[in-house]
Each structure stands twice: as structure tokens, then as C-alpha cells.
Automatic annotation (TrEMBL):
Residues 81-464 form the Solute-binding protein family domain. The keyword Oxidoreductase does not apply. Its main location: other. It comes from Ligilactobacillus animalis. CDD domains: PBP2_OppA. It is found in: Cell envelope. Residues 1-22 form the signal peptide. This is Nickel ABC transporter, nickel/metallophore periplasmic binding protein, nikA.
């Protein structure tokens, strides 16, 4: 799951940001306020990393680490504003089809190479190349020749990106892309060091040692499968004077009980919380709830006969009490979904997108309707019962949500039998990509502050459309928003609103809730920036006080 239009310097984003800097009088009293001599941060994650390859990343945790160890044209900084990354100046042509970026001359890779415009050309070409199989290649649609390259109909070398010299990058579009500059700090648009990619081959990005870095930190100790690693300050980073932390230690704790105990014993500076913990700790000075532009949903594998049936999908959706799920199972201020697009992400003429696209279909709780639809759906399939496996990630929160869904479906629909299978996040993603599931508990965090970041996922050929839902009207509306209506804000907005309604009414997926993350962050941690859309954590200027 960033970026609003800019010409030079920094510009405020539409994404909601949370700057964690304030502290209470009680906190101040317990601290000298002086910068600690030891600048080490200890952080907990709920899931393991999947990759460090910017072309292949698809999960939020890996994205967090990549965004703090790599740097693109821009960074997401304080108060949800763009900060200079490698681009010092941007010029946009009058027709919005040509972007010229001037790059700083002191960018450096961790292997000692200079970061140049050629690294962007190489990285972008690699991402759209069919051989790479990047799940995010679709985001390049609209860059000259990108669609043809992704389909294998043109060579990567024809992509509309050129290096005029080492420090001048030119990007050519086929059509104006309203959200183009929102993409440019996102992982798939990062530069890549050709020497490193060719040296490590298929191992590139699969461990800390098979990667090079150009951001504030470098990754150390990640083998590709272990549950702990470090971010160490990058001595080659152009802006290293602003980086105060020497080390960030990461440990995967899938149980919030474990991570909270470690926090209590001062072995961690950060932990997420369960709903029960959040209720007990809401008045703690270290407590906060991060509102995320993230929707958790049920993804139906529609290559299977049972889930091709609209009434079956609708029955399962109507059988889930989202109010109960959001309030009492997930907690932390999480909200029932109004649709696939999260609330607060985007608005037009003072109307929030989620409210504009709201329907009763697709997100409502109605036991009677669920039973009727199930009966009709089973009759159409010639079946008496429905049995399937619900796959989820194996962290505590995901498992609790999956178990709640299981109980709701079995209690409200007597002819439904659900088995829950909890697997590591990396495994769930891999199985999702292969279509190796019945129904999965999935989620999406907006990569940038535009509804298309959610809605693009469910077009026919999108790489993240794991359930293979298809709807011609939906695809037509999304295409119109990117082409004929792209420059007309009102028409584009209406296209996206109508598309969201089609997705809900046809139950392409079943949106469940919008996530708020209850968390404890040690009051001695200052300068942390957390954002709802895009990479969650920016540790570049974090420091520890005594």
C-alpha cells in the first residue's frame, strides 16, 4: 500500500498520517528528555518477512523494511508530506505526459556504487519484464509501452523511461495518470543495482546478504526464513546525519501475549495489542491506535464450482456479523467495512469515497437472507451441504478472526461446515498466488491515497485477483477511470464509485472490517512517523531519549 501531485520540494499528501511525538506530563516527569547515548530500538512484528526484492514484494512487513533500507525519488515524511529522496527537482510537461527528474549526485549503494538515473531505468524495466513476474507490474499501466511489455508483446527496453545522463531521468506516459506521482515512492518504482541483481541471480532479495541498499538503513541477519533480523545505520546514505538510530532489532512474535510480556520486561519498545489488551491499556501513556487504510476481506476461489455461484458467496457474506467482529474480536477502534475501499482514504466535494460507494449488499448481516440464499445456491449446485477450508495467517489476531468467521458460518448456516487452516503469512501469499485455497482471510492496505489502489485488484487480469472474480462491467468502469475519464475528476470519481458498488453487489469478495492497530510505543521513542496508506513506519529520524 502515498503521494500527491508535486513539482519541486514537498507537498502534503491526501493520506492520513500519524506522527508519534507527543508525550504526557507524566511521561516527561519520568524522563530526562536527553538523547540517550545508546540509540537502539527493539521492534516486534506479527509476521515474518517474505522478500527484500522491490519487484516482488507484496506484503506490508517486507514493504516496511524495504522502504527503510531503500530510497526512490521521494520519501513519505513528517505530517504526511513528501520529503526529498533522490529527486531534487521535478518538471511536468503541460500535457502531463512527460516527467523530468533531476537526481542528487551523492546517492550511493551499500556496495559503493553511485545511484544514478540508469538504476531507475534498470529497476523499472526489470519490474515490468514478464520474466520477473512482479505482482505489481500492473501499476505501470499508462507508462509508455508498459501494458504491451507486461503482456509479452514488447521488450522491456521500450518502456517509457530513459536516462538523459547519470542525474537526469525522463518518464514518458501514453496518457495522463491522475495518481502517477502517488506511486513514485512505492517499492516497485525504486531503483535497482544491476550489478547486484546479476551477481545474486535468483537469490537476489531472498536474504540480507543477497541485496544492496541505498536508504537510511541496511538489513543484517535475515536469512530468508528466520524470525529476527536488524536494520543498521547505512554509512553510505546521503542523508546519514539525520539518522540517529544505530540499530533496530526486529523479532517476530505471532502472539501479542508474548510480545506484550517482552515489552513489559523492557526487551521491546513496540508491540501490537489484542482487543482485550487494548481495553486494559487504553489509558497507558504509551498507547495509541493507528488507523490504517486497510480492509480485511474474505477472498473466494471462484475457479471452484461452489464459489462461482453468486448466491453461495452472498450467503456466506450475509452470515457474518461485522459489527461484532470489528468491536469485540478485532477491537482497537476497528470499523465494519462499508465496501472494499477504506474510510478516510479519499474524498471528492467533501464526500468520503467509502460513504459514496456504500451499499447494503455485500457488507450486511442478515441471517434469514443468508439461509435463503444458501438454500437456493445449493439447489443450483445440486448439493445438500457446503464444506470448505478457510485459510488465514497464523498470527494471533488472524487466527481469532478466522475462528470467529468459522463459528458465525456454522451457527447461522446449519448446512455449512468450515475447517480453519492457519499458515505463515509467506505461505498464505504463495498459496494465494497459486490459487491453492478454498476461501482465504485476506487483506489489502492502500499503497497510495486513491480508491484505485483497492479497486484495481479485482480486474480480470490483475495479479492480486487471487480468487479470479470476473465482471465485464467492473472492468469497463475501471478502464474508463484510467482512460477516457482520467482527466475529468467528476467522471472518474463516478466510475470508481460505481465499480465499488458492482464489486459489493456481485460479492466479488466479502469486505469485513477496516483495521485500527492498537499499539504500545515506548514513550522514550521520538520522531517516529506512521501513516495509514503506504509503508506504515518511517524510522529515518527516530531517536531515543533517556
Amino acid at each position: 500500500m502515498k503521494f500527491k501531485r508535486l513539482v519541486t520540494g514537498a507537498l502534503a499528501l491526501a493520506a492520513t498520517g500519524l506522527l508519534v511525538t507527543a508525550c504526557s506530563n507524566k511521561q516527561k516527569a519520568n524522563s530526562t528528555g536527553q538523547v540517550a547515548s545508546k540509540q537502539v530500538l527493539n521492534w516486534s512484528y506479527l509476521a515474518e518477512l517474505a522478500t527484500l526484492d522491490p519487484s516482488k514484494v507484496s506484503d506490508a512487513y517486507s514493504g516496511d523494511i524495504i522502504n527503510n533500507s531503500m530510497e526512490g525519488l521521494y520519501r513519505l515524511g513528517k505530517n504526511s508530506k513528501i520529503e526529498p529522496g533522490l529527486a531534487t527537482q521535478t518538471e511536468v510537461s503541460d500535457d502531463n505526459l512527460t516527467y523530468t527528474f533531476k537526481l542528487r549526485k551523492d546517492g550511493k549503494w551499500s556496495n559503493g556504487d553511485k545511484v544514478t538515473a540508469h538504476d531507475f531505468v534498470y529497476g523499472w524495466r526489470r519490474t515490468v519484464d514478464q520474466k520477473t513476474a512482479s505482482p505489481y507490474a500492473y501499476l505501470y499501466s499508462g507508462v509508455k509501452n508498459a501494458d504491451a511489455i507486461v503482456k509479452g508483446e514488447a521488450k522491456p527496453e521500450t518502456l517509457g523511461i530513459t536516462a538523459k545522463d547519470d542525474h537526469t531521468l525522463v518518464v514518458t506516459l501514453e496518457k495522463p495518470i491522475p495518481y502517477f506521482q502517488l506511486l513514485l515512492g512505492f517499492e516497485p518504482f525504486l531503483p535497482q543495482n544491476q550489478k547486484a541483481v546479476e551477481k545474486f541471480g535468483d537469490e537476489y532479495g531472498t536474504s540480507a546478504k543477497t541485496m544492496v541498499y541505498n536508504g537510511p538503513f541496511v538489513v543484517e541477519g535475515w536469512t530468508g526464513s528466520n524470525l529476527n533480523w536488524k536494520l543498521n545505520k547505512n554509512p553510505n546514505y546521503w542523508d546519514k546525519k539525520k539518522v540517529k538510530l544505530e540499530t533496530i532489532n526486529f523479532k517476530v512474535n505471532k502472539s501479542t501475549t508474548t510480545s506484550y510480556n517482552l515489552y513489559q520486561s523492557k526487551q521491546l519498545d513496540y508491540t501490537t495489542l489484542s482487543n482485550e489488551q487494548a481495553k486494559q491499556l487504553a489509558k497507558d501513556p504509551a498507547y495509541s491506535a493507528l488507523k490504517q487504510a486497510r480492509t480485511t476481506y474474505l477472498d473466494f476461489n471462484q475457479t471452484k464450482e461452489s464459489f462461482k455461484n453468486l448466491k453461495i458467496r452472498q450467503a456466506l457474506s450475509y452470515a457474518v456479523d461485522r459489527q461484532e467482529l470489528a468491536k469485540n474480536i478485532v477491537g482497537g477502534g476497528s470499523q465494519p467495512s462499508l465496501g472494499i475501499v477504506s474510510q478516510g482514504l479519499a474524498e471528492y466535494k467533501d464526500q468520503d469515497f467509502a460513504q459514496a460507494a456504500k451499499t447494503t449488499a455485500g457488507v450486511s448481516y442478515d441471517k434469514k437472507k443468508a439461509k435463503e440464499l444458501l438454500k437456493e445456491g445449493l439447489a443450483e449446485l445440486g448439493q445438500d451441504k457446503l464444506s470448505f477450508t478457510l485459510m488465514s495467517s497464523d498470527d494471533d489476531i488472524s487466527k481469532k478472526v478466522a475462528e470467529f468467521i468459522q463459528s458465525q458460518l456454522e451457527e447461522n448456516l446449519s448446512d455449512v461446515k468450515v475447517s480453519v487452516q492457519s499458515v505463515p503469512l509467506k505461505t498464505r501469499i504463495a498459496r494465494g498466488e497459486k490459487g491453492d485455497f478454498d476461501v482465504q482471510l485476506s487483506g489489502w492496505s492502500a499503497d497510495f491515497a486513491d480508491p484505485i489502489s483497492f479497486l484495481d485488484l479485482f480486474t480480470k487480469d490483475n495479479s492480486y485477483n487471487f480468487g479470479k472474480w470476473e465482471n465485464a462491467e467492473y472492468d469497463r468502469l475501471i478502464e474508463a477511470s484510467k482512460t477516457t475519464d482520467a482527466s475529468d475528476k467528476a467522471k472518474r470519481w463516478d466510475d470508481l464509485v460505481q465499480a465499488s458498488k458492482v464489486l459489493s453487489e456481485q460479492q466479488g469478495v466479502a469486505p469485513l472490517y477496516q483495521t485500527n492497530v492498537p499499539q504500545l510505543i515506548n514513550v522514550t521513542v521520538k520522531g517516529l512517523i506512521q501513516n495509514s496508506a503506504g509503508a506504515t513506519n518511517n524510522w529515518k529520524e527516530v531517536y531515543i531519549i533517556e
